[in-house]
Task: inverse folding
């Protein structure tokens, strides 16, 4: 589950990571009030208005702007709120901005130059360990840095038994070229950031940029946080941070129905029981020359009601031109699933406007095939996996 910048910063702050402070607002009037309050809290006289959407690169798309007085806060907030923000990480139509963060200006002039760093904490899947990834090239698109100057990206692996050790935090601060107070602040920043990541059961914390201010403070200007959904039951307060306006509406509906659904770009809808078989099904569709429209695991109880819900969700995707049902009947018998598919088909009438290829294998597979073939419904049956994928290509041709 992804969070907004302001929510990620709230978590960071609660673990003692210094942040660029701010107050969130939904209207230009609220933005002005937020700015006044922020000045009371921090003494800042300049502000940054930052679009809150689940996408990076907001600055490039005009979603992050400096305001030098309250009038500008109002005008810029009015401009950004309600806009469709297009960034390198959104689709062409962009994302609707519902909220802005009014943040203190932290790039004020002072005795030393400001510096921007990149720091993230995430899992290294190759080693199964968490790592801190960091670079002196902050504020830039990290993918570009990885492509053009990969030698400027460093990683520090963390032993899960000990957590991050003081020498590791010092090594990172040293490699970032820091000294004096900034060095000390950075070691504290790193260890608190790591603690925030582990304690919140996160999948990723990405801070780009981490800023060294002109008076040698280290703070998080941005925060991109992905929480591990499977651990949300341990963090009720974080679970409430979900903003479904940012999520794919079909996926939200599927989740509410207890279905494990992921929207994809292709045109072959898939209904499968079991995540492993669902992955295998998508592979086979691709191998046969097609493109899956979704991942969908209907789970163990593929009864008529569930199958109907699943059909409904798959068909919400306008790109779907055929549906492949691939069910393995182990504990749940194939003939019961077949009956479920037939009943669902009957119930839905002309709502089903694409061909359905149904492959049932396992307990009572033969009875299931007969049931489908004799149902009078336009469902194409198959017994073999390959046969099913090929039949999909035939109906699409
Ligand atoms: P992103 O574009 O979505 O990654 O949003 P960021 O929060 O990283 O902000 C983008 C850029 O806005 C930063 O790299 C900074 O250059 C600039 N920015 C952010 N905060 C301030 C600020 O307080 N003052 C000024 N002058 N610029 C800022
Ligand atoms: Mn950023």
Result:
């Amino acid at each position: 589950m992804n969070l907004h910048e302001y929510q990620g910063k709230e978590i960071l702050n609660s673990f003692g990571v210094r942040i660029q402070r701010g107050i969130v607002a939904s209207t230009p009037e609220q933005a002005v009030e937020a700015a006044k309050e922020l000045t009371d809290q921090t003494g800042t006289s300049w502000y940054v208005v930052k679009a809150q959407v689940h996408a990076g690169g907001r600055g490039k798309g005009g979603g992050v702007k400096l305001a030098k007085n309250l009038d500008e806060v109002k005008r810029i907030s009015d401009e950004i709120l309600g806009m469709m923000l297009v960034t390198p990480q959104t689709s062409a139509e962009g994302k609707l901005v519902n909220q802005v963060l009014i943040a203190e200006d932290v790039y004020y002039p002072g005795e030393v130059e400001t510096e921007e760093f990149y720091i993230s904490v995430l899992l290294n899947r190759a080693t199964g360990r968490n790592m801190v990834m960091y670079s002196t090239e902050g504020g830039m698109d990290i993918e570009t840095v990885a492509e053009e100057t990969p030698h400027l990206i460093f990683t520090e692996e963390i032993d899960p038994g000990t957590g991050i050790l003081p020498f590791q935090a010092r090594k990172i601060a040293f490699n970032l070229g820091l000294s004096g107070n900034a060095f000390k602040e950075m070691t504290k920043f790193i260890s608190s950031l790591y603690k925030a990541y582990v304690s919140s059961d996160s999948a990723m914390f990405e801070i780009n940029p981490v800023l060294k201010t002109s008076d040698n403070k280290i703070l998080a200007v941005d925060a991109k946080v992905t929480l591990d959904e499977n651990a949300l039951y341990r963090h009720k307060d974080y679970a409430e941070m979900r903003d479904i306006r940012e999520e794919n509406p079909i996926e939200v509906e599927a989740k509410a129905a207890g279905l494990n659904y992921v929207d994809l770009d292709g045109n072959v809808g898939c209904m499968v029981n079991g995540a492993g078989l669902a992955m295998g099904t998508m592979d086979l569709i691709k191998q046969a020359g097609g493109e899956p429209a979704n991942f969908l695991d209907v789970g163990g109880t593929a009864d008529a009601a569930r199958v109907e819900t699943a059909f409904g969700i798959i068909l919400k995707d306008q790109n779907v031109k055929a549906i492949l049902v691939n069910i393995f009947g182990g504990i749940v018998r194939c003939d019961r699933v077949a009956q479920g598919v037939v009943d669902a088909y009957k119930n839905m009438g002309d709502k089903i406007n694409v061909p359905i290829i149904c492959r049932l294998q396992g307990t009572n597979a033969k009875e299931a095939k007969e049931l489908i073939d004799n149902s009078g419904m336009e469902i194409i049956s198959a017994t073999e996996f390959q046969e099913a994928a090929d039949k999909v290509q035939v109906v699409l041709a």
